[in-house]
Structures are given as structure tokens and as C-alpha cells.
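User: C-alpha cells in, sequence out, please.
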């Protein structure tokens, strides 16, 4: 069975998903909101995770015991619900090497990495030593449909929310795997000629691939933010 997938992003009024989260308030609101609806798994893009740990040192003591999970920072306890969601990350190139930091975070009960037949064996070995479960689906990239089905079969995942940029969203949308698009619009105009949007792919040449949406929810949030939810038609 395929889980229900919701794409979730913080966007500026001019549709950019970068820079928009640079204010602490906006970032906090994005995460606070995401925990309003409880999902079984958070699907994060490897670039998103990579950017988070970019300035952290690569771990060396790979076989060290699993680190204890931290407590949520004061004021964020209400973001935790049980059972906590899985953190699922497609990383077929084996780029992320500081899982230990993520294992310490309190937000997830377990990390699952999605790999493909192209994932280096040395990376699978590293994940094994780090006690991180992985699923191998697809030849070059991760076969996301098969991965979602396997997450359901193996872990009973019925609902997924993304925490990713437009690249992963784009593949999910094009493969017809998205049920809902949820956006928190920040009262900002970022500008720029072509910034990353929540749906990034090779540039469109015609109207044939436009995805139609149906508005299901509209809410003004904390001052000037707006939360919109759409069903993929
Ligand atoms: N404003 C917001 O709401 C928000 C939220 C999250 C992130 N962001 C920002 O978005 C940026 C990162 O976004 P991004 O678009 O560069 O990357 P991303 O979506 O975070 O990561 C790309 C993902 O797509 C996968 N992928 C690429 N092609 C694929 C294919 N053909 N089949 C299956 N999987 C495929 C990659 O897997 P492999 O590694 O296996 O190739 C990777 O996991 C960061 O700057 C982050 O801060 C913004």
C-alpha cells in the first residue's frame, strides 16, 4: 500500500523556498506547524540534510555506541508526539556522513536511509556500523514508489510529510506520488531571477505537465503568515 504523501514547504510570496527560513521566527513556525498533523514518517531530501550538517565534522568513531537522544529544547516539548515519526532520507550517492548528530535529535524514533543499486558498498557498510537501517530500491536513483511501498510494508507507514527542497518534491510530483501540497506563506518577497521553488525540475516547455490543485484549507497564522492546503486533483 502507498502511504499518503504531503509536500510541506515554507515559501515567500514570490514562491522561493530559500532565504525565506532565515528568520528564526519563520523557521520555528514552519516546524511548529509541521507537527500539528502527525505523520508516521518525515521524508527529507539528502541536500536538505546535507546543508544542515555542512559545517559539522565528518564522524570518525563510526562504531561508537549509539548516542543517547537529546531532550527537546525548552519550549519545543509540544512538538514531540508518540510514536515519533521515522526520518527517511533518499541518499543513493552516500553523501551524508554525520548521522550520529541526527541520531541524537529527539524528533524521530528511527532513521531509515533509502539507497539504490548504485549506492557504494562502503556506504552501506558504514550505515550498518552506525546501526542505521536502509532499504535498497531502484537502479541509479531511489525508486520512490517502491520505497514508499516498502516503508508501509516494513514499518506500517501510512502517512508521510516531506522536509525537502524542490528536487525531491519534483520527483514525487512527477511520479504521481503526492496527495497533498501544504504551504506556509511567509510575508516576504525574496526577489531574484530564478530562485528554487517547491517544484524544481528541468524547465517546462509546454502547459501539458501543469498539476491542478484543489484548495482544502486556508488559515491566517500568527500575524501575517498564511497556511494553505491543497489536494492534488
Ligand atoms: N523552505 C522550505 O520549506 C524548505 C524545506 C526543506 C528544504 N529547503 C531548502 O531546500 C534546499 C535543498 O533542496 P534541493 O531541491 O536542492 O534538494 P532536496 O530535495 O533536499 O534533495 C534532493 C533529493 O532528491 C533525490 N532525487 C533526485 N533525483 C531523484 C530521482 N530521479 N529519483 C529519486 N530521487 C531523486 C535525491 O536523492 P539522492 O541523494 O539519492 O540523489 C535527494 O534525496 C536547501 O537549501 C534547504 O534549506 C527549504
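Assistant: Sequence out:
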Amino acid at each position: 500500500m502507498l502511504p499518503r504523501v504531503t509536500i510541506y514547504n515554507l515559501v515567500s510570496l514570490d514562491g522561493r523556498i530559500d532565504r525565506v527560513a532565515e528568520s528564526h521566527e519563520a523557521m520555528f513556525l514552519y516546524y511548529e506547524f509541521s507537527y500539528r498533523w502527525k505523520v508516521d514518517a518525515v521524508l527529507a531530501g539528502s541536500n536538505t540534510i546535507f546543508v544542515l550538517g555542512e559545517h559539522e565534522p565528518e564522524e570518525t568513531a563510526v562504531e561508537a555506541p549509539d548516542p543517547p537522544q537529546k531532550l527537546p529544547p525548552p519550549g519545543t516539548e509540544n512538538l514531540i508526539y508518540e510514536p515519533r515519526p521515522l526520518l527517511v532520507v533518499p541518499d543513493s550517492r552516500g553523501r551524508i556522513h554525520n548521522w550520529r548528530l541526527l541520531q541524537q535529535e529527539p524528533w524521530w524514533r528511527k532513521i531509515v536511509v533509502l539507497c539504490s543499486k548504485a549506492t557504494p558498498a562502503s556506504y552501506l557498510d558504514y550505515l550498518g556500523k552506525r546501526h542505521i537501517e536502509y532499504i535498497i530500491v531502484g537502479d541509479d536513483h531511489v525508486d520512490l514508489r517502491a520505497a514508499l511501498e516498502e516503508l508501509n510494508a516494513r514499518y506500517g507507514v501510512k502517512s508521510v510529510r516531506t522536509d525537502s527542497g524542490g528536487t525531491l518534491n519534483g520527483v514525487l510530483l512527477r511520479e504521481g506520488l503526492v496527495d497533498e501540497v501544504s504551504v506556509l506563506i511567509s510575508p516576504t518577497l525574496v526577489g531574484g531571477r530564478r530562485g528554487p521553488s517547491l517544484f524544481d525540475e528541468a524547465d517546462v516547455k509546454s502547459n501539458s505537465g501543469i498539476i491542478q490543485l484543489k484548495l482544502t484549507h486556508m488559515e491566517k497564522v500568527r500575524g501575517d503568515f498564511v497556511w494553505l492546503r491543497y489536494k492534488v486533483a
